[in-house]
Amino acid sequence: MQIILHPYTLQLRHYFKIARDERSEQPTLIVELRDGDLSGFGEATTNPYYGISYDNMRTCLQKAADYLLDYQLFTPERLWEETKYFFLNNPFAQCALDEAVWDLYGRKKKQPLYQVWGLDLATMPQTNYTIGIDTVENMVKKLQEMPWDLYKIKLGTEDDLLIIRELRKHTSAVFRVDANCGWTPEQTIKNSFELKKLGVEFIEQPLRADNWEGMKEVYQHSELPLIADESCIVETDVEQCAGYFHGINIKLMKCGGITPARRMIEKARQLGLKLMVGCMTESTVGVSAIAHLAPLLDYVDMDGPLLLSNDIASGVQIKREKLVFATENGTGVQLLEATNN
After folding, report:
1. Cα–Cα distance measured from residue 10 to residue 38, given in angstroms and rounded to the nearest whole number
2. 139 phi, psi to nearest 5 deg
3. Which fold has domain 116-339?
């Protein structure tokens, strides 16, 4: 099998800001895993917060490429275990390869991934649409530009309640709020009561990832459910979140791909935690991988392609009413030649 790397720069439709970061473009790396006439595709973005760059992803993937040159694919889980030592410090690159392996595996099986896993598309959560931090006026404009039934509102400012109150004037949609570690325990508890009155469904990652003492207090007194993001990165974090959060948000790039994400989903269900899988600022390549997990989830955040002005692939289509899966097997991804850098 051959690994081929495709670097791109994704352009965002709007300047995007969260409590700890802001950007107008997002470099991303597409991994193509080719075996004969078939190719599978996966994605990983660069991320300074987690120390992920093109260069360190290439280094890991080159080691894997040498190993896979004469490799015979049996199962993606087996390949993940056999190559994990190439990615000890780079789960993003590991995710891109794992997504590509699962895509290729589905194509070899001549089935979309959800069928490979025996899942039913009859019941799936709808994705939210994300509104990044901006002036209140601009946040209202973004909301009006994209009529939707579920919005994730990025918070972590001095005017968080004012923002939600103003947005509520313009829609009856369900709100979810994500503070990206930007609040204190006292703020979170106080805000939870007001946010519930304003039609907010849950609060995602209000405190710093390592503030477990504070999260225990919030968990005991919050009026709204709490979803872990930065506090739940890898498989061993899932059990830690029980008793501190009501659910977890799994990011494929952070945990190392589909393979560990499926194990995290199983563990979270055993612990009675609600389940969400979220995207980064990524294209249809990575989001199509997430889509096939959707029947297993309570919530899904896979609006990445909707935030872009230059998506680079076809695959799952994100509609307001539902997800439309591609007719191709695997994840259904096809790169768009016209956008290739």
Report:
1. 26
2. -65, -35
3. TIM Barrel (3.20.20)
- The pLDDT value given to residue 14: 85
Q: What is the rounded distance in angstroms from the CA atom of residue 217 to the CA atom of residue 247?
A: 16
Tell me the C-alpha distance between 236 and 324, whole Å: 33
**So what's the pLDDT on residue 321?**
81
Q: Does domain 2-111 fall into CATH 3.30.390.10?
A: yes
pLDDT of residue 162: 97
- Where do the CATH 3.30.390.10 domains begin and end in the chain? 2-111
Give the DSSP letter string of 56-117. Answer: HHHHHHHHHHHHHTT---S-HHHHHHHHGGGGTT-HHHHHHHHHHHHHHHHHHHTSBHHHHT
pLDDT confidence of residue 53: 96
Query: What residue ranges of the chain are covered by domains with CATH 3.20.20.120?
Result: 116-339
> What pLDDT is stored for residue 19 in this prediction?
66
pTM recorded for the entire structure: 0.95
Question: Alpha-carbon distance 109 to 260, whole Å?
Answer: 21
Other Cβ atoms less than 10 A from the Cβ of 90: the count is 21
Backbone angles phi, psi at 187, to 5 degrees: -60, -45
**Residues 319-325: contacts with CB within 8 Å, 24+ apart?**
320/147, 320/148, 320/149, 322/124, 322/126, 323/124, 323/127, 323/291, 323/294, 325/112, 325/114, 325/121, 325/291
Mean pLDDT by 10 residues, the chain (341 residues): 97 80 89 97 95 96 96 97 96 98 98 97 94 94 96 94 97 96 96 98 97 98 97 97 98 98 98 97 97 98 95 95 92 80 49
Q: What is the full DSSP assignment across 127-164? A: BPEEE-S--HHHHHHHHHHS--SEEEEE--STTHHHHH
